[in-house]
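Entry for the shared binder. Reason: the reviewer on the internal report wants the predicted structure included alongside the sequence.
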Amino acid sequence: MKLYRLNRIFNPSSKKCFNVAIDHGLFNEYSFLKGIEDIESVITRIIQADPDVIQLSIGQLKYLQRIQGKQKPSLVLRADVANVYGKSLPAIPFNKLIDSPVIQAVRADAACLCINLFSIPGAPEVTAQSIENILQIKPQSDYYCMPLMIEPLVFKSNQEAGGYMVDGDLKKILPLVRQAVELGADIIKADPCDKIEDYHQVIEMAGDIPVLVRGGGKVSDEEIIIRTKNLMDQGASGIVYGRNVIQHRNPVLITKILMEIVHNHKSVEESLNLLNR
């Protein structure tokens, strides 16, 4: 019966998904707030571009769900909150669940829950917390037929990187992705690797579980378009972009362009032409 909700996430024709993540304010990092200072306005604009999904926190989902009519993006609800994204790890790093996340997702008419699986140098306790969180909510997510999107995140050392930075080493990404699958993920949301052309290994490691690729930090329009096309050509089931959409000079336009790549196989050249019109 999870299929009922999964059908609200993936496009019926392409079987792919574009999820715009706008849950960054939950993590108490100033740099994450750029572009979402007025979150109601951002959500209203993004809806105009008609992505498949918008990912939000429990305190901000009202701006999506109170919109009238059935033609709006589905909701993915963020299930946890962490404090590990700063220039250095805090004395007590954590990754905590919101209260009764599955029940809150059901009440909010969410199509899916999203939960972290961290691997952070110097913070094994956060990995342990992440696993405990997943183990805690997995049986209830199955009982209530609420799909579980697990987000395996491999960090570089915060101090080395000057803050949160993805470690694109496949030897670190692949086992964490596989662990997420083994823990019962219905969807995987994973980072790109250093060599984008090798990403098919992540998709293969996930088996029959769909893989959505995270966007990470803000990059140039050309880079995100080329990367997205490459990832989709390798068999990704979609993308989850936040800052590359919400911090764009024209969030609606870039969302529409990326949607065309995800669902309609638009070429890099066609996409760049649309961007520069």
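Summary line for the report: The mean pLDDT is 95.
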